[in-house]
Amino acid sequence: MLKSEIVNGIEIISIEGTDKIISANAETFKSALSQRFDQNGIKAILDLQNISFLDSSGFSALLSALKKATINKGVFKICNVKTEVMRLFSLLNLDHVFEISDNMNECIASFDSKQFYY
Questions:
Q1: Which CATH number does the domain housing residue 17 bear?
Q2: 3-state DSSP call for residue 21?
Q3: Where does the chain have alpha helices with state H?
């Protein structure tokens, strides 16, 4: 379900094999995504370009990963969110919780432009 590569010390995570994160696959997604932040200081970007829908279970999985990243002094960002999915982020006020970039290049560049303090 998840594929990743390292670019400039940042793990780029993409989702394959589905266009929805819903209750049927959310637990597998949550487990696979959250384990990325088992170590301290991990920097990761989740590319949502292939996702057209998330239900409450999908958003819960994202929040769980963000919490684990924060606890372990990591950074978790999201990019390439489709308009219909972004509407859901906004409706749930999660667009203020997650750092979301329009595209991958902008998201990668945002790591260089900020200092993170914990």
A1: 3.30.750.24
A2: strand
A3: 23-34, 56-71, 83-91, 104-112
